Write a sequence for this structure.
């Protein structure tokens, strides 16, 4: 974890945002991320992100659930402790379909939500640096990563020209840490100082 | 430019040739079938009639499902399907045609005196059978005929009315006011159709035509199950025509997005079908009452075992595994394959339902079944193509058309 | 970026020419303001009912469920009726959030959050009944399959009652995950606006550090879609399994194959009615008329008339099959015990028919669909009707069973059975009042997402597009 310097540009209209993203990317700048108050369709493609494969994970969790349910039930009722239940065969497949289905769904849903939280690093008490408080209200906040060579003045002007309503430079921690939202802190700074 | 858009379908001669060839094969099979079986023993005659019967009922219901598709989308104010709406409309023009064949056949069964198919027509047998006697308030020739005529008549009439209303959207551009009136008129007819659909396909007509083949057996689920079966087939048929026209360079507004949604429909309703199948089978299996299990006994354990499980594999396992992926639903070749597979699968399902009762001991699936199938496929191709050619392929003034053009899944 | 366009024929989903910021303001305001007097009154009534319920349950545990008026044949009375009723109500939430999402019904955005919350609370209420019905509730863990010292004697996986255990717990878990993952962005919105320290801290914890990153949104959308895809068959399976509780047995009136889809339709029917009841109150109390418009109410009334008719079709199918099967016992259950108005429970059957099948038919008329008073009245009627449906299925089928010597004349509940039921109302409304106060009752991010297609001001801006011909339009915008 380390701190980095970012140029932050805020937009208030999706249409302007899209053209700005295109301009800034063609100019060769690296957009770290765009923070939006709601999902903007097509923005992920505009930023050159690959498709998520979280649904594939869901499929794998699902079939894990299916096999767990079927293997447990068949072992229990057909092998470990066979009982005559209503004269049905010990391996009573039709009667096991409901539970098999439920476990498939349960495994897929729980697994996917955990995977989602893991990938996005979301959990209670997790804190990240927020570049603008209105990113969850009505602003589309574009964050551009600066390198040593970046001329922040030029870049700010460029972002402003592309239609931003607000531009500034921020030095911020990239990752997450355990923290509270009623306090302003960025813990890794101290570590760097101490080192 | 606008003038280069192929709005009007012209029937390719190759398609016509194919249609006539299939009809020819079908007629030949019919004649040969009539000579070899149609004049044989009562059992052979019943087999012959049964084969025509499940084909004609299947195709009538599938074509009517296309009109159901149109009506539910009208009622839901759905926009996405406008670009290809003329296709389900064209398919539904077959309802009166296949309906007449069904009607003639059913009338023949009722009045021919062969009671092998509908056991309850045999008045002597009914006298000696307390259960059938009790049912005769419903299962009697008069009511059967009246209800069948009424059903087919109203399906055709309301379908015709829907298609006629749709032509208005070819005439002149609509503003907000006239657009609303147009939607309103469509809504009224569509709701009438849906109500009648519920009273027939959702309940009575399957009891009459199909469930009464096994006059002692009953299942409350039966009609809904058959509805699911024919609806998913109807969507597959629509998909096939969409892909065909797209390949021929028509339907320029229709694209992968629309195909994707049709794919989702097939996927979802295949699962829905399997759900109803399972609910019916499981409940009968679980309680194990002889009067109910009799339906499944020879199908699961007897000669129909193979077809019984094939039915499940084609109609449930295949769609759920293959259509789950997004890229498949957007692929024209794979969607063609799946649509054909599912139509075939549900045709097999109807085979199992009808012939499984008429000919309990022997599986007769053979040249005659496929011959008669080819007759119906040929007729379907010919008449759908004609209906498509009779109107522009897109109702260009429909108020929801633009939504459909920019439709995005 | 794709063109955001929707025909002007459709009513706006958000009235009043809102901007993104207005949406945030309007929906978060009730959370930040002090609750009104009305809220306090409602909340205290709910808590009072809850306390009465707790006392009834306390008596159930100490005295035993012998204090209920169950008897020889009617071994399942109010308890299981209430269970099925609450589960059914829960289903509309999942239906709105999942199936309507898959069907791309734009109007769901205004109502889904509250409906999902309703699902969770309704399932919580439903769960109480089988749990306390166990009597010795401290043995409750016996329903779980785990290796034990009793043999090991496993649970019976062939029993529908065990399927219920799996179905209801899965349903609760998945609904909760679905609801909460959808809430994360909105909780983050509340957090970032919070003025007080405590609120900032609490919403900070609750929002899991959500920051609206594009990548997160992309995954979030994919997650929602898959969860919707899983919930849609799940909601069918849950009520299917509930219907199996009845249909797998061979009791006349219970053993009928149409039960699974018919229960599902009934569940959606009653659930939508409950959503109407709640939202009509919410939109009034929290001034949400711009977001829960008459159009939303009308759409839900359409669902009510549709599902009511499907249920009606199933009732008639069952009645017909009782005749058609020529099964004496089925015939007795349907024609003597139910459809006969003068039999002891005939009134319940006809009450059910009137409330569920006949009266919703008034929603064929647009005027009535858009009338708030009629809607509210009908939503209550439908829920009464659906309660009677379960009561009819259960009690009229078993009060005269195969053994006439054990027939009982009448079954009426004791005050503690009623108390338990009333208590779940307390639980439900307590939870709902708290939800409405501390959480955004409308999905903020989703409203913003549809604002530029369906918001009032944006609808007006497509005037020129509406005038274009299809060919021009396609030339310009088609992809």
């Amino acid at each position: 974890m380390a701190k980095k310097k970012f140029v932050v540009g805020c937009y208030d209209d999706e249409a302007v945002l899209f053209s700005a993203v295109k301009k800034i990317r063609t100019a060769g700048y690296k957009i770290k991320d765009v923070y939006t108050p709601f999902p903007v369709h097509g923005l992920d493609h505009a930023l050159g992100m690959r498709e998520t494969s979280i649904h594939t994970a869901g499929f794998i969790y699902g079939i894990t659930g299916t096999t767990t349910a079927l293997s447990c039930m068949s072992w229990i009722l057909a092998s470990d402790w066979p009982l005559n239940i209503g004269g049905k065969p010990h391996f009573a497949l039709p009667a096991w379909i409901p539970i098999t289905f439920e476990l498939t769904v349960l495994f897929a849903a729980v697994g996917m939500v955990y995977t989602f939280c893991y990938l996005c690093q979301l959990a209670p008490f997790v804190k990240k640096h927020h570049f603008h408080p209105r990113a969850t209200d009505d602003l589309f906040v574009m964050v551009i990563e600066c390198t040593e060579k970046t001329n922040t003045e030029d870049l700010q002007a460029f972002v402003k020209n592309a239609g931003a309503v607000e531009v500034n430079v921020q030095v911020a921690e990239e990752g997450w840490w355990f923290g509270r939202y009623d306090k302003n802190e960025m813990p890794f700074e101290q570590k760097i100082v101490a080192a | 430019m606008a003038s280069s858009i192929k709005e009007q379908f012209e029937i390719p001669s190759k398609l016509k040739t194919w249609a006539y060839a299939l009809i020819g094969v079908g007629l030949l099979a019919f004649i040969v079938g009539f000579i070899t079986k149609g004049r044989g023993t009562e059992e052979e005659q019943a087999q012959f009639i049964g084969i025509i019967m499940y084909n004609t009922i299947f195709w009538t219901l599938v074509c009517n499902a296309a009109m159901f598709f149109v009506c539910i989308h009208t009622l839901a104010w759905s926009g996405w399907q406008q670009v290809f709406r003329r296709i389900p409309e064209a398919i539904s023009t077959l309802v009166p045609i296949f309906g007449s064949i069904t009607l003639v056949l059913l009338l023949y069964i009722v009045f021919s005196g062969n009671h092998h198919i509908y056991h309850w027509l045999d008045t002597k047998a009914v006298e000696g059978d307390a259960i059938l006697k009790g049912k005769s308030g419903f299962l009697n020739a008069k009511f059967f005929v009246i209800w069948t005529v009424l059903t087919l008549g109203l399906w055709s009439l309301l379908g015709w009315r829907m298609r006629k209303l749709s032509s208005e959207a070819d005439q002149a551009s609509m503003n907000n006011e006239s657009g609303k009136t147009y939607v309103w008129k469509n809504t009224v007819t569509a709701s009438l159709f849906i109500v009648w659909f519920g009273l027939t396909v959702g309940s009575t007509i399957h009891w009459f035509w199909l469930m009464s083949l096994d006059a002692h057996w009953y299942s409350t689920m039966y009609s809904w199950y058959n509805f699911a079966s024919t609806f998913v087939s109807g969507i597959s048929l629509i998909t096939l025509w969409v892909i065909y026209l797209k390949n021929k360079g028509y339907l320029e507004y229709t694209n992968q997005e629309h195909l994707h949604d049709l794919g989702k429909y097939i996927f979802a309703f295949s699962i829905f079908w399997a759900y109803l199948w399972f609910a019916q089978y499981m409940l009968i299996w679980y309680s194990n009452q002889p009067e109910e299990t009799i339906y499944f006994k020879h199908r699961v354990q007897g000669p129909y075992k193979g077809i019984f499980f094939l039915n499940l594999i084609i109609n449930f396992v295949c769609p759920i595994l293959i259509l789950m992926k997004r890229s498949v639903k957007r692929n024209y070749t794979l969607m063609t394959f799946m649509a054909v597979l599912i139509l075939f699968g549900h045709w097999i399902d109807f085979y199992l339902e009808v012939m499984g009762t008429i000919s309990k001991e022997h599986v007769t699936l053979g040249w005659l079944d496929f011959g008669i199938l080819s007759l119906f496929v040929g007729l379907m191709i010919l008449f759908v193509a004609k209906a498509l050619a009779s109107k522009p392929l897109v109702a260009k003034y429909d108020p929801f058309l633009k939504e459909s053009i920019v439709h995005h899944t | 970026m794709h063109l955001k366009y929707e025909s002007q024929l459709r009513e706006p989903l958000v009235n009043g020419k809102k901007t993104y910021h207005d949406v945030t303001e309007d929906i978060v305001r009730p959370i930040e303001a002090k609750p009104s007097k009305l809220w306090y009154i409602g909340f205290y009534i709910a808590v009072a009912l809850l306390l009465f319920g707790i006392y009834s349950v306390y008596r159930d545990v100490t005295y035993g469920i012998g204090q209920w008026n169950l008897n020889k044949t009617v071994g399942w009375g109010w308890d299981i009726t209430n269970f099925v009723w609450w589960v059914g109500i829960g289903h509309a939430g999942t239906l709105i959030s999942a199936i309507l999402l898959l069907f791309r019904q734009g109007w769901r955005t205004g109502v889904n959050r509250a409906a999902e919350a309703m699902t969770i609370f309704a399932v919580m209420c439903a769960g109480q009944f089988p749990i306390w019905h166990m009597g010795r509730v401290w043995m409750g863990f016996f329903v779980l399959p785990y290796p034990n010292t009793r043999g090991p004697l496993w649970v019976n996986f062939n029993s529908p009652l065990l399927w219920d255990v799996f179905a209801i717990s899965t349903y609760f878990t998945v609904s909760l995950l679905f609801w909460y993952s959808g809430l994360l962005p909105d909780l983050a919105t509340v957090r970032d606006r919070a003025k007080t320290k405590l609120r900032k801290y609490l919403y900070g914890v609750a929002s899991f550090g959500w920051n609206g990153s594009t990548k997160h949104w992309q995954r979030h959308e994919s997650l929602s879609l898959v969860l919707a895809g899983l919930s849609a068959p799940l909601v069918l399976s849950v009520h299917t399994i509930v219907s199996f509780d009845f249909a797998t047995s061979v009791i006349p009136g219970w053993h009928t194959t149409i039960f699974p889809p018919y229960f599902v339709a009934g569940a959606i029917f009653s659930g939508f009615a409950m959503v109407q009841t709640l939202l009509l109150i919410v939109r009034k109390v929290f001034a949400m008329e711009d977001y829960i418009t008459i159009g939303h109410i009308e759409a839900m009334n359409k669902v009510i008339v549709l599902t009511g008719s499907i249920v009606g079709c199933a009732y008639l199918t069952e009645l017909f099959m009782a005749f058609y099967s020529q099964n004496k016992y089925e015939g007795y259950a349907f024609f003597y015990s139910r459809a006969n108005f003068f039999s002891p429970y005939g009134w319940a059957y006809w009450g059910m028919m009137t409330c569920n099948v006949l009266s919703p038919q008034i929603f064929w008329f647009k005027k009535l669909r858009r009338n708030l008073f009629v809607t509210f009245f009908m939503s209550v009627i439908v829920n009464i009707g659906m309660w009677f449906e379960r009561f009819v299925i259960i009690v009229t089928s078993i009060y005269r069973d195969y053994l006439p010597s054990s027939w009982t004349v009448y079954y009426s509940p004791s005050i503690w059975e009623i108390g338990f039921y009333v208590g779940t109302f307390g639980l439900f409304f307590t939870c709902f009042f708290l939800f409405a106060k501390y959480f955004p009752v409308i999905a903020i991010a989703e409203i913003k997402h549809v604002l530029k297609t369906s918001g009032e001001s944006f609808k007006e801006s497509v005037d020129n597009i509406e005038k274009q011909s299809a060919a021009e339009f396609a030339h310009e915008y088609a992809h």
User: Anything to note?
Assistant: The two ends of chain B are 27 Å apart (CA to CA). The mean pLDDT of chain B is 91.
